[in-house]
Amino acid sequence: MSTLSCLQDMYSTLTPVEQRIATYFIDNNDVLVKKPILEVAEQCGTSKSAVVRLCKRLGFNGYKDFLNDLSAEIALKKRDKMYGHSDIYPSSTVANICNLVTHNAIQALESTSRILSKDAMEKAVEAISKAKRLDFYGAGNSGILAEDADMKFARIGYFTKCCVDVHRQLLAASTLKAGDVAVFFSYYGTTKDILDLHDIVKEQGATTIAITCVGGNLLAKKADIVLETASTESLTRSGAMTSRLAMLNVLDMLFTAVASKNYKKVKEVLDRSAVLVRRERY
Description:
CATH class of the largest domain: Alpha Beta
Number of helices: 13
Oligomer: single chain
Shape: globular
C-alpha cells in the first residue's frame, strides 16, 4: 500500500493536528519533496515535532525518510500511468518487465516490514504456541497461502486444518473450540465467505488472527489479532502479485518466530520429517 493511501486509511484515527498535517501531505504531495519541514509546520499551524511524530506513526524515522519514500512513490505512479496497469507493460522488453516486477516485490516487502506491528506479531506467536489446534482459511489466491501455512505448521508438529472449499471451511470452523486458533488470509479483508467464517469461529470461542492489508478493513475490525501488510496491489491488477508476496512474508515471519520460541519441541519433529522427506529424493 502506498504511503498516501496509508495516510488516507488512517485519517479517521488521527488527532486533529495530525489530520491537518495529513491533509497538507495529500493535497501537496507533488511538491512536498521541495518543502522544508519548518514550512510544512507553519502551513499546518503546528510544530516541527508534530510533523515528525506523524511521519514516525507511518513507520518512518522522520520527515526526511518520509520524503524519500514519497519521491519514489511519485516516480512509480508516473511510470504506472504511462503503462496503464502496474503489472502489465505493453511494448516493454522482457528485461524491463523483470526489473519492474522485482522492484514492486521489493517495495512491498520493505513497506510491510516497516508498518507491521511487532506487538501484534508477539501476540500471534504466543497464541499459536499455546494452540491445541490451528486452522487456516483463505479464498482464491489467499487459499494458496492458507495451504502453505498448513504445510509449514504441520511440519513442526501442530494439529492443523486447511480447507479452501467453502463447505469444508464451514464444517471445520464449526468444530473449533476455546484454546484453538484460526488464521485468516485476505488482503482486502472484504470477502464475504471469509467474514462469515470468522463469525462462526468467534462463536466457537477460538482466537482469530487476520493477515490482511493495512487500513482497518472489515476483517481487521473483527479479528482478535491483526498482522497488517502493505503492497502496491490495486483492484485492476491481472492477479494477486505483491499482495501475495507481502502476506507470504508475514506468514514466514510468524512461522519462524513460533518455531524459534518452541525450538526444543520443534527440533525433534523437524529432524524426523527432514529424514523422511530425504528418503523420497533420488
